[in-house]
Amino acid sequence: SWTTGSVIEEQVGRIRAQVGEGTAICGLSGGVDSAVAAALVQRAIGDRLTCVYVNHGLMRQDESEQIEQAFGESTGGAELVMVDAEEQFLAALAGVTDPEQKRKIIGHEFIRTFEQAQEDILRERGVIEGAGGDAHTAAPGHKAFLVQGTLYPDVVESGGGEGAANIKSHHNVGGLPEDLSFELVEPLRTLFKDEVRAVGSELGLPDDIVWRQPFPGPGLGIRIIGEVTRERLDILRAADAIARAELTAAGLDRTIWQCPVVLLADVRSVGVQGDGRTYGHPVVLRPVTSDDAMTADWAKVPYDVLSRISTRITNEVSEINRVTLDITSKPPGTIEWE
Ligand code: XMP
C-alpha cells in the first residue's frame, strides 16, 4: 500500500542504484516538484548533488530573490548555483510566436545552461582539469545526471504514457535535445501533485514550498500570446503581481489551484480613460480549481475580488485597458493559454 514513507525509501534506493558514484545537478524552478525531487536526491547522494537555478527572465515579479531565500530552508544544505541567463533566453525567443516552438527553445536553452553549469561544477571539484573543452570527453567514466521533477500527469500529457497523445511537450519531458549528455533522474514520475506535496511535507520542506501553486517551467514565456519581449514581460509581471496579491489577500491561495494571467500582446482593444481614447492590450485572468491539473474547472472567485483586480490592473498598468475572465473548464480548454 502507498505511504509517503515507503515512497521515500523506495525512491532513495532507486536513485542510489541509478547514480552510483556519479554526480547530479537539479534545476530548481522554485516549485514544489523540483524542490521535492532535489530533497530526495540529496537524501540519496548527499553533496554529490548541486542545485542550479536558472533565471531565464521569464519569472514573475521578485520571484528569483524569493526562491534563493526559500532554498536555504528547504534542501538540507545542498549547494545552490544561481545562473543569470536572461539575455540568452530572450535572444533565443526573439521573433517566436508558436507555443511549442517556444517550449522547445526554452527547453533547449535550459539544457545548454545546465551543461555549462555541470562543467563548471566538475571543474571546481577537480573531476575535470584544465580550461574549456567538453566535460564528458574530459572526464571519462564519470556519469552526469540531471534531476527532473517530472510528475505522472506530465508524462501522460507529453505522450510518454501508454497510448497518450502529445497534448503539450512540457519542457521537462518532451522538449529535450537529442544529443543530451545527461542521464535523467525522475523520482516523481509515478506521482500526482498531492502525493508530491505529502512527500515534501514528510521530508520537512517548509509549507510555502509544499503549498506553492504550480508555475510552468517556461514561465511567462507561454503566457504572452505573441512574441516574448522584455517590455511585454514587464507589463505582464506588473499585472500578474496585482492579481496574485489580491488573491492572496482574499485568502484564496489554497482554494485556487493556480491563476495564470495571460497577456494578449498582439491584440489591441479600444478604451477610454479620463478624456482620452486608449488603445491598449487585454489580459485574461485564468483562475482554476483542480486536483491534479489533468482536468480543471474555472474558479468562482468572488466578484468583489475580481473587481479589485480589474480596477487595480487598469489603474496601475498603463498598457492594459481591459481585464477579462476565462470561464472555460479543462477539457476543452487547457489551464495555460499556450
Ligand atoms: P495545461 O495548460 O496543459 O497545464 O492544462 C497543466 C499544468 O501543467 C503546467 N504546464 C507546464 N509545466 N512546463 C511545465 O513545467 C510546461 O511546458 C507546462 N505547460 C503547462 C500548467 O501550469 C498546469 O499546472
UniProtKB/TrEMBL annotation:
Keywords in alphabetical order, please.
Answer: ATP-binding, Glutamine amidotransferase, GMP biosynthesis, Ligase, Nucleotide-binding, Purine biosynthesis
The record's EC number reads: 6.3.5.2
Does the record carry Cytoplasm as a key word? no
The top EC class is ligase
Catalytic activity, per the record? XMP + L-glutamine + ATP + H2O = GMP + L-glutamate + AMP + diphosphate + 2 H(+)
Q: Which GO terms describe its molecular function?
A: GMP synthase (glutamine-hydrolyzing) activity
GMPS ATP-PPase domain location, by residue? 2-212
Query: Which pathway does the database say it acts in?
Result: Purine metabolism; GMP biosynthesis; GMP from XMP (L-Gln route): step 1/1
List positions binding ATP.
29-35
Domain of life, per the record? Bacteria
Function of this protein? Catalyzes the synthesis of GMP from XMP.
Subunit info?
Homodimer.
- What is the protein name stated in its UniProt record? GMP synthase [glutamine-hydrolyzing]
Originating organism: Brachybacterium fresconis
Name of the gene encoding the protein in the UniProt record: guaA
| Shown residues within the full chain | 199 to 536 of 536
